[in-house]
């Protein structure tokens, strides 16, 4: 019920949908529409469902306390202030709370930095039956600015809409799922072709451009950079990192994980189990190279191999020498690894999101094949992993600083052995095998990370 509410010329109000639990507002029946202090106002999202994101300093004089907000755009209007100046303002609709009363209100956004009140309540917000007492102040329950420093308020803050970029050249299952799930959660997700990006390198104002336009400020970037463009994709990603954008996977981690030799060196340094591995450049070292990993069978991998391509199983020393000679004839770089026979053509893919294994599947090679990759015809099914396997997967992702990674490992007789850490794991196979909504788990991690910087713990005097 809103009948009988009495308002003074100034009141404490809350805008809970925007994460603003306490604002001191001036009641101004001379103004038609209510107004809220806002800065860094930026429209985003599709034309059919445009949104705004903006920031608010809720406490006058406290520029160190910033609340980030977002809301759908309702309108854009020409507003004339009391001093006769006209301004084109965005209009949003939100919920106004005073005491136990909540009503929907239209609010225009404008910079009120120099105003004593962060909000002005116009006559449109005044409901039938309400009465204005212009000689009184704070007829409704008083609030205080100290509320912005309580943990309860931070936990109850609404999840603001984010603007997220997916760096991808492909319209595949994984990219489509990332877009669909992000939009269902209220975010705006834009797919950007990595190779169409270019950069302005500037110490004061670095920028990323694409197709002739400067890209906007994104809250987060999800890189899906193909192996063939790793170097350039990493350069683009470093530019976003320079801008302070949260990148789910960093450029350094992607680059290191793609270089199989470097990756194995990093795993070895972290004392993470892996198949016995050897590398050499000189053809004179072939016999010694094979001897380091065992007489046979051995696995020979091109350093640039993906999806099981460029991976050969040599059953005997003679076969291994022939494959090595062939690869060297092509001037290809490769690794030689021991063959983990007890794995029996099976490996485990653990998907790690923000330091936690969220899904795991077992991949089984088809008959006559030792590679279990799904792209090679392997079959997938959910699997229950051991504590040691879980910890190994998390540690392996952490070695490369990856917030989203697929860790492939074999079950050896002496524990799990990591084969590869994939910085752009596919989603289709593991979602179908486990029934898990992987993009939702990824967005939950992004939402936890992409928050305004914590406010400084300083007690503000409530007036």
Automatic annotation (TrEMBL):
Task: Output the Gene Ontology cellular-component terms.
Answer: cytoplasm; ribosome
Q: Which residues form the ATP-grasp domain?
A: 264-447
Q: Which UniProt keywords apply?
A: ATP-binding, Ligase, Magnesium, Manganese, Metal-binding, Nucleotide-binding, Protein biosynthesis, Ribonucleoprotein, Ribosomal protein
* UniProt cross-references to Pfam families, sorted A to Z: RimK, Rimk_N, Zn_protease
Q: Which PROSITE patterns match?
A: ATP_GRASP
**InterPro entries referenced in this protein's UniProt entry, alphabetically:** Asp_endopeptidase (IPR008503), ATP-grasp (IPR011761), ATP-grasp_RimK-type (IPR013651), ATP_grasp_subdomain_1 (IPR013815), Peptidase_aspartic_dom_sf (IPR021109), Rimk_N (IPR041107), Rp_bS6_RimK/Lys_biosynth_LsyX (IPR004666)
One GO BP on record is:
SOS response
Molecular function (Gene Ontology), one example: ATP binding
Q: Which cofactor does it need?
A: Mn(2+); Mg(2+)
The transmembrane residues are none
Secretion signal span: none
Look up keyword Manganese and say if it applies: yes
Stated family: In the C-terminal section; belongs to the RimK family.
Q: What is this protein called?
A: Probable alpha-L-glutamate ligase
Q: Which organism is it from?
A: Roseicyclus persicicus
């Amino acid at each position: 019920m809103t009948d009988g509410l009495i308002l003074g010329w100034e009141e404490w109000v809350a805008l809970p949908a925007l994460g603003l639990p306490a604002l001191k507002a001036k009641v101004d029946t001379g103004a038609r529409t209510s107004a809220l202090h806002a800065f860094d106002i930026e429209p985003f999202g599709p034309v059919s469902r445009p949104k705004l994101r903006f920031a608010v300093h809720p406490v006058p004089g406290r520029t160190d306390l910033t609340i980030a907000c977002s809301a759908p755009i309702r309108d854009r209007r020409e507003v004339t202030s009391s001093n006769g100046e006209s301004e084109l303002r965005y209009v949003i609709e939100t919920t106004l709370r005073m005491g136990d009363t909540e009503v929907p209100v239209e609010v225009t956004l404008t910079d009120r930095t120099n105003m004593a009140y962060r909000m002005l309540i116009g006559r449109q917000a005044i409901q039938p039956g309400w009465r204005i007492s212009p000689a009184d102040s704070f007829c409704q329950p008083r609030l205080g600015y100290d509320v912005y420093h309580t943990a309860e308020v931070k936990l109850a803050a609404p999840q603001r809409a984010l603007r997220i970029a997916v760096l991808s050249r492909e319209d595949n299952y994984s990219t489509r799922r990332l877009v669909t799930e992000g939009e269902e959660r209220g975010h705006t997700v834009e797919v950007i072709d990595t190779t169409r990006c270019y950069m302005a390198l500037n110490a004061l104002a670095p920028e990323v451009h694409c197709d002739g336009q400067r890209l906007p400020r994104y809250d987060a970037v999800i890189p899906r950079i193909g192996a063939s463009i790793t170097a350039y994709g990493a350069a683009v990603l470093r530019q976003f990192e320079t801008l302070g954008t949260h990148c789910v996977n960093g450029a350094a981690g992607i680059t290191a994980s793609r270089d199989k030799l470097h990756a194995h060196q990093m795993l070895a340094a972290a004392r993470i189990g892996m198949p016995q591995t050897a590398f050499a450049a000189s053809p004179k070292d072939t016999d010694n190279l094979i001897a380091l990993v065992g007489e046979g069978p051995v696995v020979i991998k091109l350093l640039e191999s993906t999806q099981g391509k460029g991976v050969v199983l040599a059953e005997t020393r003679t076969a291994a020498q022939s494959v090595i000679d062939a690869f060297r004839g092509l001037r290809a770089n490769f690794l030689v690894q021991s063959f983990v026979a007890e794995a029996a053509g099976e490996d485990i893919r653990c998907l790690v999101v923000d330091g936690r294994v969220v899904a795991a599947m077992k991949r089984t090679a088809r008959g006559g094949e030792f590679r279990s990759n799904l792209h090679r015809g392997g079959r997938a099914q959910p699997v229950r992993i051991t504590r040691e396997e879980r910890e190994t997967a998390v540690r392996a992702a952490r070695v490369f600083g990856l917030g989203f990674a697929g860790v492939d490992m074999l079950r050896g007789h002496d524990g799990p052995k990591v084969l590869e850490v994939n910085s752009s794991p596919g989603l289709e196979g593991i979602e179908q095998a486990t029934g898990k909504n992987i993009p939702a788990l990824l967005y939950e991690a992004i939402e936890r990370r992409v928050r305004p910087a914590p406010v400084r713990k300083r007690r503000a005097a409530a007036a």
